[in-house]
Amino acid sequence: VPARIENLMAEKQLYAAVQLHVQSMLMLEREGLQAVGALQDVRSDLTKLRGALFYKILEELHCHLYNNGEYSLVTLSMVDSEDIPTSGATGRLVNSMQPLSRRTMSIKGENHFSGPATADGITKTSSVGCSSFDGPDDDSSLGGGCGRKDSKSFSCEIPIFLSCATPDEFLESMRKADAPLNVKYLRTLVQCLSMLRKVAAAGAVICQRVRPTIHDVITSKIKSYAREASKSNIDKVAKRTASDLSHSHGAVTCYQLPKQKKKNEASTLATQLVASPISPVMAPTGDAQHAASQLLGSIFECLVGILENHITVGELLEQKSSTDVDSVNTPHG
Questions:
Q1: Domain count, the chain
Q2: 3, 98, 148, 222: which has the fewest Cβ within 10 Å?
Q3: 128 inside domain
Q4: Name one GO biological process term (predicted).
């Protein structure tokens, strides 16, 4: 079981990994099994994997909160803008809503994060993945088996990141949900945290990271824009130099007119500076103001997307937190 959970984590089948972990821990808590000494190592391994699962889910959530993840809105928009998928990630995103029965025939053989893509854009997965590693169908009660016979009945509209999960109420709700793929992935990650009883811990970490991460995002945007502007200026200078060299043979005959033109331009610029201390570049319609406006627009657009993700996840965490409190207060809980 620990090896299977690690394999599911490597394949980013996080919900299936959490399902398997929770089911296995419940099995170990059954009456009569708690005193079995031979199971202590398994129990210890599963306890360590709970922490590893939490940090893996938390990092995935962090990436998608800031639109850097595989299923984030920015990544999906980039995929939509391309006509032909060119990578494994693109193939998975475009075909994430394809029926599982069509994929399972092509995902055996190689790791689907590094293997070649098949004809329908789905890259192959490893033979120790969720296809053949999980063993015979009679072990499917532990979860993690993509090749189960009942897969067709629930996976017609299930995203690929849930393709190895055992059918349950959450998968049924995801199948029926009319939500974008990035929102479904955020819901899945929050559901995983809820199943691990890590909602409060995740919320605290997310809050701690907001301010420094947004600061880094803004700084990165400014540096990126500065590099692009510098490169653009260098290209303009190079083109201007090439143009000047190509017309240098006629410079002598046309010397008087450009000279007079330069004098007129210098006179106009001097007049503007005397009339106003603001240079034409810094004027409201100048190049500098235009560049600053573009930069701020880019930053604000990025931040709006990030804050929308935080609102979505915040509402989900709050809902799960209140649900957990209600379940603890009930006699059964």
A1: 1
A2: 3
A3: no
A4: protein transport
- The pLDDT value recorded for residue 89 is 44
What is the maximum span of the chain, computed from C-alpha positions, in angstroms?
A: 104
Q: Give me 184's structure tokens.
A: 């479904």
Domain that residue 210 falls in: 1-78+161-236+293-326
Q: What is the pTM of this model?
A: 0.64
The span from the CA of 313 to the CA of 186, in Å, is: 7
Residue 56, token pair as written in the block:
């893996």
Distance separating alpha carbons of residues 271 and 183, to the nearest angstrom: 57
DSSP labels, 35-100: T-GGGHHHHHHHHHHHHHHHHHHHHHHHHHHTT-STTSHHHHHHHHT-SS--SHHHHHHHTTTS-H
CA distance 93 to 108: 18
Neighbours of 78 (CB within 10 A): 13
Question: Whole-angstrom Cα distance, residue 93 to residue 75?
Answer: 9
Q: What mean pLDDT comes out for the span 288-315?
A: 91
Cβ-count burial 237-275 (b if 16+ within 10 Å, e if not): eeeeeeeeeeeeeeeeeeeeeeeeeeeeeeeeeeeeeee
Residue (of 80, 323, 65, 42) closest to 213 by Cα position: 65
pLDDT given at position 306: 94
322 half-sphere exposure, CB direction, 13 A CA radius: 5
3-class secondary-structure state, position 117: strand
The 10s digit of each residue's pLDDT in 203-262 is 999 999 999 999 999 999 999 888 887 777 676 666 766 665 565 555 544 445 455 555
Side-chain-facing half-sphere of 164: CA atoms under 13 Å: 30
Q: How far apart are CA 41 and CA 46, in angstroms?
A: 9
Contact between 46 and 25 under an 8 Å Cβ cutoff? The reply is yes
- Could you tell me the two tokens for 283? 């004027």
Distance between CA atoms of 132 and 129, rounded to whole angstroms? Answer: 7
pLDDT, mean of residues 310-316 = 94
